[in-house]
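The freezer alarm interrupted the setup, so I double-checked each line after restarting. Inputs confirmed:
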Amino acid sequence: MDRIVRVNMSELTTSVEPVPAAWVGLGGRALTSTIVAAEVPPTCHALGPSNKLVFAPGLLSGTAAANSGRLSCGAKSPLTGGIKESNAGGTAAKMLAKLGIRALIVEGQPKEDKWYSVHVAKDAITIQEETELLGKGNYCLVNNVQARYGKPVGIMSVGPAGEMKMLSANISVADPEAHIRSLGRGGLGAVMGAKKIKFISIDDTGTPPVMPKEPAKFKEAAKIFAQTLLDHPVSGQGLPTYGTDVLVNILHEAGGLPTRNFTSGQYVDHDKISGETMHATIVARGGMPTHGCHPGCQIQCSQIYNDKDGKYLTSGFEYETIWGLGADCCISDLDDIAEADHIMDDIGVDSIETAVMFGVAMEAGVLPFGDGKGVVRMLREEIGKGTSLGRILGAGTANVGRVFGVTRVPVVKNQGIPAYDPRSVKGIGVTYAMSTMGADHTSGYAIATNILSVGGHVDPLKKDGQIDLARNLNIATAAIDSTGMCLFIAFPALDIPACLTSLIDMINACFGINLSGDDVTALGKSVLKTEHAFNIAAGLTKEHDRLPEFFSLERVPPHNAIWDFTPEELDTYWNF
Amino acid sequence: MKIALRLYATLRDYLPEGHDTGVTLELPEGATIPDALAVLGVPLSLAHIIMIGGRHVLRPDVQSRQLKDGEELAVFPAIGGG
Ligand code: SF4
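Predicted 3D structure, all chains:
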């Protein structure tokens, strides 16, 4: 039976309730954002007792649908001050879905200065005091907790950064290899740390697989869907072979690869950090170029990257991390970046926020551009240990800019701008400005159409069509984020009609309902409107839907592109 | 005339021995993008994204766009990420 679980950290009690009528048919981001909007006072302190941390598997999580195992996490973000949804792979979504838990809501705040863990199993949800693993990194924690239970339980945890409530802190989710995936953006790890929860473990022993209401129809649709993922060259070949890091070279060629804290769109050492180089390195060292972040991922864009001695160094080694420490911080040694990636996962900080922050810190002279060893040291010795400098660096890009008097600070709503220059790829600039999440490329991935010629082509250097493009992509993404699907299904979905129709058929067969394509679009719109209304009530007005001034003052080579949308033009984004 | 041709991802399999990222091609005046790709035997059907000087050349223009001396041609198969 589907249910909602509440974990009250003020009273140290747990409760289970049926899914209220208003939440039936919602999953993933639609559910986390609906719950946050309904139950969290928008003006509350994000690290205080009134905020709630909501975990929700997607609508199709736990079923046999390919790529359906993404877990959404929502709260008021301490970084942006607005609503947040972040999603990740790992094993947790499937386990929660099998347990019939549509959402797990953590509320309140302990009165005593003690730390806790939460264990979720078929017959009981319990809160225990935790002492042993305090201060420990996520890798050590995952191994210890799975050893305690003697089985690969699902885990959501915070590292030292989350314990210290740093604004860049993320929540780690254990993957099938006991490695780390991240609910990365927006400081959700600080919210979990503020609730004094070191980890949540999930044991789905004794639960059957999630059964669709109409199994034959579901099976048929799932088959078609999986075939479209195989048939599209991006999801069928490009992503599994090179991972997301294949983007380094194409963004460099297009002049949209932000370099040296967003002062150029091209990086001279691009080939040293490219997906092609990473692939060759992984193969030469006996790593795995192709790997899935959750059971049932068919695309498998992840990888296992070994060090020079052939020992595991990191996995889920993404383009945005490599771009950020690579081009934006001018670190051309992929091994240094991989080591930094490992440490960021271990101490539990968002690798995008942290990399963008280091670009600003380098401009401020805290360390020189290109100093990969310096970044590794600062992650381990300053941020990981919470020294005074580490606390400042862990507070994210915007705060580091303020502390050091830097004016070139690439953030929207205080969240670091990822790996695509908005001046030379204008569609993604609209997404950065307008997203309810703060600067977030995944909320409306205009790169597909501006750069990758997926879903047509809109000239990245011109303003024409960009607002419509960004709006449509943000609406579609809000719907996809609610299904539990990995966003990378959007590549086939933009080009192959059967991908989307079979996805809707799967949802219909799973729940015995009859959604149309228009209903799915309406869901995406309503998610965005719910989030937007929360943000406005929290004090994020349209003046926050803007890029930083320097993008309109400084032209970026090689195209000498400038950010030239007017506020009035941007505001038309919300005309739907 | 001389043009620089850079290939990416799986298309690098078409590069001659000793060239990791691209080649310089000597082509007759008026040569087109398909002419340049034909030198290395790259099937046009795999050239999903084509840029000259960092600007996309769209499908309808690929056949007719004549190359000019000194231009830089970058060619990608279908790729994605994010
Ligand atoms: S395609 Fe990549 S990000 Fe998506 S579910 Fe698979 S491994 Fe995870």
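Quick read of the result. The interface with chain B takes residues 232-235, 237-239, 241-247, 249-250, 253-255, 271, 275-276, 301, 319, 441-442, 445, 447-448, 451-454, 457, 459-461, 487-488, 491, 558-559 of chain A (CB under 8 Å).
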